[in-house]
Amino acid sequence: MSKSSDNNFTKRVAAKWLLAKGKYDHIDFKPPESVANAAVRGLEYRKKGGGGGLSTEQASKQGIGSGVQRATNLKNRTNLSPSTVRRMHSFFSRHEKNKAIDAKHKGTPWKDRGYVAWLLWGGDPGAAWARKVVRQMDAADEKAKKASHVAKDDHPAERDGTYMSRRFIRQMSVQSSILSKMLKEGMPLMDWQEAKLAMAAKDFNAVFNSLMYGEESPFLRMASDNEPTKPELWSRAKAEAKKRFEKYPSAYANGWAVQWYNEKGGGWRKKTKKDD
């Protein structure tokens, strides 16, 4: 199986859940008050008898959006869907030429059907708001598109003994992030799923501890090949390890002591010949 195929699952899940589902979370889809006010004025003008804007029934027959329904949503400042905002932006782009009040209706703007329709969709404030939100959505779409390729392997020649392990760890990292988000949003787990996660955590922890503190630990090699630059701090580290581990010295205890020493600011230098 090619490396591209190996990563298909991770990319598909990450793109559909982490990216697509939440990519618009930072965008406010609630129409501003200025947009609501323009829609209210449009409804009032339409009611006054000038017409303009299609009713829901009229729009349904023509297969297009209803100006009256849109105005009602805007008046109530209802959170709109991304597709609705895009339709608003499309409407404004097509009908901007009709927004100005005809000279013969300067004193009676409610008689200008184009102007009334413009107001029903939010007027100038609505056009500006829809344009801003669409720009935000386009930017989020582009970001999501780029992020969907994050799982792509940049090292196709990498085929040494740890290749599979590294691939599994990358996949687990992405999937763990997804699961964490799902659980945070209240998705329940069945008993067998809980059990599987507990077993996986135990196995992963065993590998982690072995690599961190086992006989092949880089911390142990650091201590065996070098000497501490802060002997007193190193003595404290060994004392802390004796408190923590029943058996000392041991690979685990020594590895833990080295990590503790490093975190406290300890350093290492090459051993002198007399220490060899």
Give your account of this protein's structure:
- This protein has 276 residues and is an all-alpha fold.
- Among the domains are: 33-144, no CATH class; 213-275, no CATH class.
- Helix content is 64%, strand content 2%.
- The protein is built from 13 helices and 2 strands, in the order αααααααααααβααβ.
- It has helices spanning 3-6, 8-19, 33-50, 56-62, 67-75, 82-95, 113-120, 123-147, 163-184, 191-213, 218-225, 231-244, 251-263; strands spanning 226-228, 268-270.
- The longest helix has 25 residues, at 123-147.
- The model is unreliable at 1-6, 58-65 and 151-160 (pLDDT under 50).
User: Segments where pLDDT lies below 50 for 5+ residues?
Assistant: 1-6, 58-65, 151-160
Q: Summarize the helix and strand pattern as letters.
A: HHHHHHHHHHHEHHE
N- to C-terminal separation?
49 Å
Q: What is the arithmetic mean of pLDDT?
A: 76
Beta fraction: under 5%
Shape: elongated
Task: Tell me how many strands there are.
Answer: 2
Helical fraction: 55-70%
Helix- and strand-based class? mainly alpha
- Individual helix count: 13
Spatial order of the strands in the main sheet? 1-2
The description of the largest β-sheet is: 2 strands, antiparallel
Rg on CA atoms, Å: 32 Å
